């Protein structure tokens, strides 16, 4: 139920931001102060204490939600990187996916070594996810960023409502 609430909150924010961007025809203005900005000469983040604090707190919150609820990566990392950095959206998504992949790899190794990984379930699921990823990237290239965000947000909200309904016993399992 808690996961459903986090998902509804995150998707609601994504939906609102994407809708405003479509109405105004431009992305929402960023805050005047960003703790993490790219050095234009190097194309890398300038590491400052405010930047290290912002990214460490984001990682801590993401890890806490991942460990507690099994979610956190994209729902915490993407909004935080959008808020605290001047990275473009492709870099933000790529960074989020890299972090999620590293955390997932650690979880798979730990589960495998402890003998609780069910490869007969996990392998076909992972194969299906990779095929879905490739197909999704093809579809995403034909959709504008805000429309894709709206589609994601609505899908996430429906999933959250179904999960909450199941947790409350309103829907069959």
Structural overview:
- It is a single chain.
- By secondary structure, the protein is an all-alpha fold.
- The chain has six helices and two strands; from the N terminus they run αββααααα.
- It has helices spanning 2-24, 49-69, 73-84, 89-114, 119-140, 145-167, and strands spanning 38-39, 44-45.
- A hairpin with a 4-residue loop joins strand 1 (38-39) and strand 2.
- Helix 1 (2-24) packs antiparallel against helix 6 and helix 3 packs antiparallel against helix 4.
- The longest helix has 26 residues, at 89-114.
- Separation of the first and last Cα atoms: 14 Å
Number of helices: 6
Which shape, going by the Cα principal axes?
globular
> Main β-sheet, in a few words?
2 strands, antiparallel
> Mean of residue pLDDT?
85
Q: Helical residue percent? A: over 70%
Structural class: mainly alpha
What value does the Rg take, in angstroms?
18 Å
Total beta-strand segments:
2
> Ranges with pLDDT <50 over ≥5 residues?
none
Strand proportion = under 5%
What order do the strands of the largest sheet run in, or round the barrel if closed?
A: 1-2
Helices and strands, in order, run as HEEHHHHH
Short recap of the structure:
This protein is mainly alpha-helical. The protein has helices at residues 2-24, 49-69, 73-84, 89-114, 119-140, 145-167; strands at residues 38-39, 44-45.
